[in-house]
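To assess whether ligand presence alters the predicted conformation, the chain was also submitted together with protoporphyrin IX containing FE. Input:
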Amino acid sequence: MHDAHHTIHYTLMICPLEMPLEKKEKGDCDVFGFCFDAEFRNTGLERAESLAKDLEWFKEQGHSIPEPSFPGLNYSAYIEDLSKKDPQAFISHFYNTYFGHSAGGWMIGQKVAQTVLNGKKLEFYKWDGDVSQLLQSVRDKLNRVAENWTREEKNHCLEETEKSFKFSREILRLILS
Ligand code: HEM
């Protein structure tokens, strides 16, 4: 079932994003020049829990939930690796994933609900509060953190966008297969 496929691979991709960046020394917020936990944890954009609920719902509808496979696992491992060594690249995936799913994804989610789910609103598309305000507040934090980056670090973050689209394309291809 494609919808279940869809959610499980998003779950894999999002979970590493919802873990804290690995720090060299416990409690040291300045290793990367910013404190990920303080700035980007509990933003209200987290989706792993709602995805788990959606998967449960798909299961109750009689769909089997497939085992994670290459595109999701591969992206997940990649992000986890970045979290240990490359904050600028990690932030690029953080931005693309949450903003992509919450802005464009929300619109796609509406269409999917109307056309194949008989209007069922998935948990993935429910937020506590106004999603555009949540996005704006995270956008402000991202801009604040990036103000302290060098031009090279900013370029590195921007260039990582290509990878973000590449991994997403692989997941999309799996959903369509
Ligand atoms: C089927 C493919 C896609 C469609 C149809 C789509 C559509 C959209 C639409 C309509 C918006 C604007 C929403 C708004 O302004 O309210 C949007 C925003 C966005 N999309 Fe996509 N998108 C797709 C794939 C992707 C992918 C693969 C990524 C990243 C990996 C991505 C990243 C983003 C980001 C970051 C934004 C928000 C920009 C911002 O406001 O800061 N999108 N998308």
